[in-house]
Design a protein that fits this description.
The protein has about 210 residues and is mainly alpha-helical. The chain is built from ten helices and no strands. Helix 1 packs across helix 2.
């Protein structure tokens, strides 16, 4: 019986991954408004009812697509639980921690940037997407606060640093909206964004310890 349940669960997971991959491709290619659940079902080679049963609405499907793109898989682990983020919390030097955080943040944007742009299209129309975007910004703020608080607690920040200012300012750089803005207006690649994050976060640490910044 357990083998049967295991096979059934594996089929369910495989079907969900296929639907999510198809939805990701269609949302990015055609935009939010033009993508239909029926089109997603056809692309995923499943019945339309399967998509409706698993995801309910197009907004809920997009939200799930964004969530999966952010972390890179369908596991129920948020960004702060991911190996790359945990490594950034415990590396021995500030430079190594900043580098790991910049690497992970840039990789996240490379995976999710295109669907973040789709979510921006949908946000004014879909309360579900608007709420998810607010939650995402809050999660980004929280993860940055955890990172810089760990630096302070481990004695790796300069004396007198303004932790609140540092967390708030550094966090803005990690928001999806910031990535999309520099990608659109400056034409930056993900590598350029990574380099900018690393250099600017390092400079902000010094600035946060300067009273007259």
């Amino acid at each position: 019986m357990s083998d049967v349940k295991g096979l059934r669960a594996a089929r369910v997971a495989e079907t969900e991954e296929r639907i999510l991959a198809a939805a990701h491709e269609l949302f990015v290619r055609d935009g939010y408004a033009a993508t239909t659940l029926t089109a997603v079902a056809d692309a995923a080679r499943v019945a339309p009812r399967t998509v409706y049963v698993r995801f309910g609405t197009k907004a809920d499907l997009l939200r799930r697509v964004v969530d999966v793109a952010i972390v890179g898989d369908t596991q129920d682990l948020d960004v702060q639980s991911r190996e790359w983020y945990q490594a950034a919390l415990v590396a021995p030097t500030v430079d190594e921690r900043i580098g790991l955080l910049a690497d992970g943040s840039a990789a996240l944007m490379a995976r999710a940037g295109d669907v973040f742009a789709v979510a921006q299209q949908a946000e004014p129309l879909e309360p579900v997407i608007a709420a998810a975007a607010r939650a995402g910004r809050a999660a980004t703020r929280d993860s940055m606060r955890s990172f810089f608080t760990a630096l302070r607690d481990d004695g790796l920040l300069p004396a007198g640093v303004d932790l609140d200012w540092l967390c708030d300012t550094a966090g803005v750089l990690a928001h999806a909206n910031t990535y999309l803005l520099v990608r659109e207006t400056l034409g930056w690649t993900t590598d350029q964004y990574r380099t900018w994050l690393r250099a600017t976060w390092q400079r902000l640490i010094a600035a946060a310890a300067t009273p007259d910044r």
